[in-house]
Amino acid sequence: MRTPTRLAPATVPLLLLLAACGGGQDPYSGEGGGALVVGSANFPESTLLAHIYAKALEAEDIEVETQLDIGSREVYYDQIAQGNLSVFPEYNGGILFYLEPEAESGDTQETNEAVRAALPDNLAILESSPAQNKDSITVTSETAEQENLTTIGDLQRVAGDMTLGAPAEFETRPQGVPGLADTYGVEFGGFRPLEGNLLVEGLRGGDIQAANLFTTNPAFTTGDFVALEDPENLFGSQNVTPLINKEAVGQQARDVLNAVSAELTTETLIELDARVQIDHEEADVVAADWLAEAGLD
Asked: Residue 114: what are its φ and ψ, rounded to 5°?
């Protein structure tokens, strides 16, 4: 198995400069036998997924380059549309709400149908994996047991005495605090803007009693936390889904990426994220290990 060529983390000017090179031939367009360019956003799980995609493609003798840690969706989406990037690990609900901010939450199939309808003609999503990284309302295992909490709706009777920790935008976005009130009748007594590991520390320390954690957060591997069930699907679907530039990505590469998606589960992604974010293993090594275990190397 060949090791993919790794480029330095990209910025938009660098991507545009690369696209301009080559005497009018876009080196990343997929025409003329050019390499597929697999990108990632600037957070660890996205980088891990990009390595998984790249190494799976390389295992089938498809030439691959990587552009990692590019930035947010507002930065990288245009680069895919312009052909500077070929493949990107996305989340179906995330890309839907980027394209259609007023879209309603749905299951995986409904979300993918809506995404396909909203994408421009030159872009496509492939098959979604069972793996999801979605919003949750999470409490400690102790709180869940003491208050008999299983679903978000169970919080209705106790939320008034609790402080919710979440990123600042969660307080106003439709699927955040307003959605909790409208969908479940849950209104917290307080709100504290926190992000990342500060949410986990806040829960552990008791500064907050509930937190908006993503469901692949490695903290769930400790058994100390419980993500409450969302039976009304307030948070929608957030399946890991390859987003591709259709002109750049041929059928062989699509088949490879679909095979990866078929094997990737939420439980697997939590374990892999923990190896990268807690054990500090290199993402490319973790990706290679999983592909070997899944028989995709």
From this structure: -70, -40
Instruction: Please tell me the distance from the alpha carbon of residue 38 to that of residue 16, in angstroms, as a whole number.
Output: 16
Listed as own residue / partner, the contacts of 114-118 with beta carbons closer than 8 Å and 24 or more positions apart are 115/241
List the chain pLDDT tens, one digit each, 297 residues: 333 333 334 444 444 444 434 434 343 334 435 899 999 998 899 999 999 999 999 999 999 999 999 988 988 999 999 999 999 999 999 999 899 988 888 999 999 999 999 999 999 999 999 999 999 999 999 999 999 999 999 999 999 999 999 999 899 888 899 999 999 999 999 999 998 889 999 999 999 999 999 999 999 989 999 999 999 999 999 999 999 999 999 999 999 999 999 999 999 999 999 999 999 999 999 999 999 999 999
Closest by alpha carbon to 141, among 220, 214, 199? 220
Give Cα 128 to chain centroid, integer Å: 12
Q: From residue 16, how far is each of 26, 90, 203 by CA, in Å?
A: 10, 21, 43
Measure the CA–CA gap between 288 and 15, rounded to whole angstroms. Answer: 26
Tell the CATH topology of 5-132+239-293.
Answer: D-Maltodextrin-Binding Protein; domain 2 (3.40.190)
How far apart, in whole angstroms, are the C-alpha atoms of residue 119 and residue 73?
14
One fold for both 5-132+239-293 and 135-227? yes
Q: What's the pTM?
A: 0.79
Question: Class assignment of domain 135-227?
Answer: alpha beta
Reading the block at residue 219, the tokens are 């903290």
Burial 218-243 (b: 16+ CB within 10 A, else e): bbbeeeebbbbebeeebbbbbbbbbb
